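Re-run with default settings, no changes from the original entry. Doing this only to confirm the output is reproducible before filing.
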Amino acid sequence: MAGGIKLLTVPTPDGKLTPELIDRQAWGFGDVHRAQPKVVSVSNVTELGTVYTPDELAEVCAHAHGLGLTVHLDGSRLTNAAAALDVPLRALSTDAGVDVLSFGGTKIGLLYGEAVVVLDPDAATGVDYLRKTYMQLSSKMRFVSVQFEALLSGDLWLRNARHANAMARRLAAAVEGVPGVRLSRAVEANAVFAVLPADVADRLRKRFRFYTWDESTGEVRWMCAFDTTEEDVDAFAAALAEEAAASPS
């Protein structure tokens, strides 16, 4: 990985870190034979569709800071998390103690662009130079940045996020009763996880693009976005029901 960084993962059933899970990798300080812990990175919404509450994030941040670690928040879907919890964005970032936030734009309606928000300048010394070194300083950056003004100056981000979350709930309700299909995780934001027969998934993939999340169980992940329509959801659910009905019993 660029920068000489080693990524140390921790198994977690719901995609969320806790102080106890952080301690599984936050050790060996000063040991030249081990990668030195420096940053705790979490995602909200997580890759498993779960949502950290402000208290959960604050607990992670406090524990990490107590160990001398910096906290990075992957906020590709932070707007969906805030909408799901009905809290302001700062409750899941600044107020929780996050040091650096990568705020997602493309998943919530921007043509393209992500923002790195440095909440603690001491935690990101030299970031201005790294931005250009790693070729993330776009020509005419103002044309990228102005999209965030449109997104955040009003409630566009919130309306888009609420819509995506609502479409996920609609999808979950539509497929829940389809024979052979089982919702495998609670819908907390804009992700729907389900287990379905492999042959059904393969045929459905010829009509709609998605991939299998866990090959061993047949679990799939369906994401709803700011531009997912009710018609999209209903058409997908109807196609799933058709393919399930055509599957050998």
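The chain has a mean pLDDT of 93. Residues 19-152 form a domain with the Aspartate Aminotransferase; domain 2 fold (CATH 3.40.640.10).
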